[in-house]
Amino acid sequence: MTGTAIGGNFELTDHFGKPVTQANYEGRFALIFFGFTHCKLVCPRALTRISEALELLERQAEHIQPLYVTVDPERDTPQVMRAFLEERWPRFIGLTGGRDEIEAMRSAFKVFATKVADPDNPDGYDMPHSSLTYLMDPHFRYRAHYPDTMEASQLTEELRRQLTQFPDGSE
Questions:
Q1: Coiled-coil region(s) at which residues (predicted)?
Q2: Is 15 part of any known ligand binding site?
Q3: Which residue among 67, 86, 104, 113 has the highest number of C-beta atoms inside a 10 angstrom radius?
């Protein structure tokens, strides 16, 4: 993704129903994953991997706020996001919003997601999406992205390197 601007300003709603912008997350690194609560495999696996990596970071994890941004705002209300995250992935803040706000966020991060018909799904559709994890510095500037295939231990080492190299987000 070299040469392509990643990230930017946003206005969304967190899973507590409060309006938030990127400024709410400045001061800490942000680890961002895009997905949806009805995802059966990719999202639960990614959220678990990210959570395990943060556990391995121990106290350094205090410098990182993981964010889970929906690609399915029609189903993922703040209440649905909160119920989905609270029990299994409590470190995460879920972010949702209107279709236009989510589309702007997806576009800013170059995230692919599309609604496809799925007769086996009770809602009649699924949302295939890209599965990268993005790291933003404490000024909410893009630092790195990590593939879904990266193991938790590898992600931990990458995050540790980023935290050590740019502890305050400066260059």
A1: none
A2: no
A3: 67
